[in-house]
Amino acid sequence: MASAASVTSLADEVNCPICQGTLREPVTIDCGHNFCRGCLTRYCEIPGPDPEEALTCPLCKEPFRPGSFRPNWQLASVVENIERLKLVSTPGSDEEDICQEHGEKIYFFCEDDETQLCVVCREAWGHRAHTVRFLEDAAGPYREQIQKCLECLRKEREEIQRIQSRENERIQVLLGQVATKRQKVIFEFAHLSQFLEEQQSVLLAQLEKLDADILKQQDDFDVLVSEEISRFSSLISELEEKNGRPARGLLTDIRSTLIRCETRKCRKPEAVSPELGQRIRDFPQQAIPLQRKMKMFLEKLCFELDYEPADICLDPQTSHPKLLLSEDQRRAQFSYKWQNSPDNPQRFDRATCVLAHGGFTEGRHTWLVKVDLAHGGSCTVGVVSEDVARKGELRLRPEEGVWALRLAWGFVSALGSFPTRLALGEQPRQVRVSLDYEVGWVTFVNAVSQEPIYTFTASFTQKVFPFFGLWGRGSSFSVSS
């Protein structure tokens, strides 16, 4: 049996010079070269620049007459034998290249029907008016489209991989924070356990003292009651004896006896003195320091588990001229009177805002903002990126590097891409702002009720600053840790 390599070599010798495929219905022209009948027919139908010019061979350029085709039956037999050998030497290898209807090799692609065609299919009436190309020619534009799709998909995959990398980093940061919180919980509860043991000892000692005082007063009460019972028992016995005498004996000293009995007042002793009763009633007050200590412990624990207190001072170099800053730079008040403030690149010239000193490039920080809007107006609190617009209009939204809340008279809004009015249990007047730089959280909480207000999620890439804005006569705010 012929090897696959030799069969392939033979097949190359009987290829059509026009379609580069195996000859189909081979014909010979005047110069002796062989072509597929269909390929040569189409070649002859292609108009040249000079209609009168004779046709030339596609290979040697020798002229030939269109009607001089001579079927080459011998070559057709050779081609048929080679095709049979190819199927035997490589069984199943060309099944996908063979037309299922005609058994011919597929060379063409119909753009209109998106169908692969053999020579016979190509000459069919249904495809004559269609755009038909050789397979490789038709595949070219699709390869370009596939390449464009691949580029887009690869970019999308890279973006997803970047997101995955960023989120994995955030997860590692969160795991580190959880480990730190775990250590703080163990440490704080160890101290709390020691304190509770001490308080338990103090309270139990006080209860034991109350026990002893109650038992002592019980003993005193028992002695007093016994004495009273004894006295009354004597009087009762005397009267019973007097009552049992004859009339003469009964009347002897009867008046003095009755006066002595009637004037005898019963003392009603109390088992527990008012002072001791008050001490028992006041005992729960002894737990008030413990309650206060527990509250302080919980506040301190929650605070330490959350963020580090930030020492906030307002930066006068950034303050709008309508804001009056206190000497300690921890309070600002709105004024319609412009201050004589020199213009500089850091100062806001249209938005009545001010930034804090320093800024943050890492870590978790928190600060308290007390707002006074007694005369109306509004106050804006949050954080901004370092490159936030200082001149001209300032758009308060995350896309512009601003993550903030607006507190106005009667409502609070989260300044997202579109401002959102928030439904809160009460109007906050003290807001705790917390920043987690690595994770990308800006959190707002009502510092009095501990009610969560809103949380922004961001990806910080540069320094951020605590941000404050004021509007309205008499409006003010102060900052602290």
UniProtKB/TrEMBL annotation:
Xref: InterPro entries: B30.2/SPRY, B30.2/SPRY_sf, Butyrophylin_SPRY, ConA-like_dom_sf, PRY, SPRY_dom, TRIM/RBCC, TRIM10_RING-HC
A GO biological-process term: innate immune response
Domain RING-type residue range list: 16-61
Residue ranges occupied by any B box-type domain in the UniProt entry: 94-135
One cellular component term from this protein's GO annotations in UniProt: cytoplasm
All copies of domain B30.2/SPRY, residue ranges: 292-481
A Pfam short name: zf-B_box
Statement: the UniProt record of this protein carries the keyword Iron: no
Annotated keywords: Coiled coil, Cytoplasm, Metal-binding, Zinc, Zinc-finger
Main location: cytoplasm
Molecular-function annotations in GO: zinc ion binding
Subcellular location(s) per record: Cytoplasm
Coiled-coil region(s): 143-170
Subunit structure and binding partners: Interacts with IFNAR1; this interaction prevents association of IFNAR1 with TYK2.
Homology family: Belongs to the TRIM/RBCC family.
Name of protein: Tripartite motif-containing protein 10
